[in-house]
Specification:
Elements lengths: L1 E6 L12 E6 L3 H6 L4 E17 L2 E15 L9 E5 L19 H7 L4 E5 L11 H8 L15 H7 L20 H5 L18 H13 L2 E6 L5 H8 L4 E7 L17 H7 L4 E5 L5 H20 L4 E5 L18 H15 L2
Parallel strand pairs: 5-6, 5-7, 7-8, 8-9, 9-10
Antiparallel strand pairs: 1-2, 3-4, 4-6
């Protein structure tokens, strides 16, 4: 049994739960997973990239973004918009694939539901690679060690509590949805994050431009950001909103009221631009620390700004819907496909 939600415009003075109408939809998620996955095509490519001259006769390509995709065979008879899934800090596109305990992830599930699905590795991450020039310059003595960028790495213990698997390392919340018995498999997904090489908190991040370009290449896309990339759909829309048909922001790690760089508040013109695109903001359970702060920022400040600008924005708190125990990694949780259904229902209702 799958829960579907139809989310209407959420106004600041209204309780989220009061404007959500739940309907039970028949059909077994498990049965759906057993059906063959039929594709029209699949593949991979790169978006963006610039040539950088390291030395005479030694040019390299940097700032390219790796994309893998699957297009369902049903697209011609049941046209649906493309969905672009963007991973968070210290992770890669693997976040959206098979779960640590072997269940279907969002990437295949969205395809099964008829959506062309694109997974990206952020610039400086995984298959997108990074610009190694500064490391070579430090090694050769051309630059001092202080020129080396900070590399973000989250340890297993910190990830357990920050991603809300439980209150202390090794102890799960009683209603925890993340498959904590397989946490060691999840920890293998975590990799060094070199985003600070790009100055995402002090300057432009080429991933934003590449996401806007990818939306153009797909003929129109729903951008889904999570955690570190939670506000990336909006950042991409501020670059070029033309082909972004919807923005899904899942538990942004930073803010909903500041653009890149994060220290700069969104201007009225930027708010007006973002209000032209339907938006879904989604949070799970057991919020604390930075995620509790970003919840307050998104719900109490950003949402009213978009509403005042005439935008179509939906704010979903899973506990307010009676769905409890979801971690920060809700796309991997035991009820991950139920949460995907909420997102797809919103797309069908607001962003077609």
């Amino acid at each position: 049994m799958t829960l579907r939600v139809r989310a209407s415009l959420v106004r600041p003075h209204m309780c989220v739960a009061a404007v959500l109408v739940l309907a039970l939809v028949g059909g077994s998620v498990a049965a759906a997973q057993e059906e063959p996955l039929t594709l029209a095509k699949q593949g991979s490519f790169f978006v963006g990239g610039q040539t950088e001259t390291v030395a005479p006769g030694n040019d390299i390509t940097v700032n390219q973004m790796y994309v893998q995709y699957q297009v369902p065979a049903s697209l011609e008879t049941q046209p649906k918009p493309a969905v672009v899934l963007i991973h968070g800090c210290c992770l890669s596109a693997k976040s959206w694939e098979e779960t640590p305990d072997g269940r279907t992830g969002w990437s295949d599930y969205f395809v099964r539901k008829g959506y062309p699905t694109y997974l990206i590795d952020q610039v400086t991450r995984a298959r997108s690679g990074f610009d190694p020039t500064v490391f070579q310059q430090v090694q050769s003595g051309a630059k001092p060690p202080t020129a080396l960028p900070n590399i973000l790495v989250i340890g297993n213990e910190a990830a357990w509590t920050a991603f809300r698997f439980g209150p202390t390392y090794g102890t799960a919340f009683e209603d925890e949805q993340f498959p904590t018995d397989y946490a060691d498999e999840f920890f293998k997904q975590m990799i060094p994050d070199l985003n600070l090489m790009l100055g995402p908190y002090s300057g432009p991040n080429p991933t934003f431009n590449n996401l806007a370009s990818l939306a153009n290449q797909t003929g129109g896309a729903i951008l889904v950001g999570h955690s570190e990339s939670g506000f990336f759909p909006e950042d991409a829309a501020l670059v070029d909103p033309a082909s972004i048909r919807g923005m899904v922001t899942i538990e942004p790690g930073g803010s909903c009221t500041t653009a890149n760089p994060l220290s700069v508040p969104l201007t009225p013109d930027q708010i007006q631009k973002l209000a032209q695109i339907p938006t879904l903001i989604l949070y799970g359970d057991h919020l604390s620390g930075g995620f509790a702060k970003s919840y307050a920022d998104c719900h109490d400040v950003y949402l009213p700004q978009i509403v005042a600008a005439g935008g179509d924005i939906s704010f979903v708190s899973l506990p307010d819907m009676g769905i409890f125990g979801n971690s920060h990694m809700m796309m991997l949780d035991k009820n991950n496909l139920d949460i995907a259904d909420i997102v797809m229902d919103w797309i069908d209702t607001h962003a077609r």
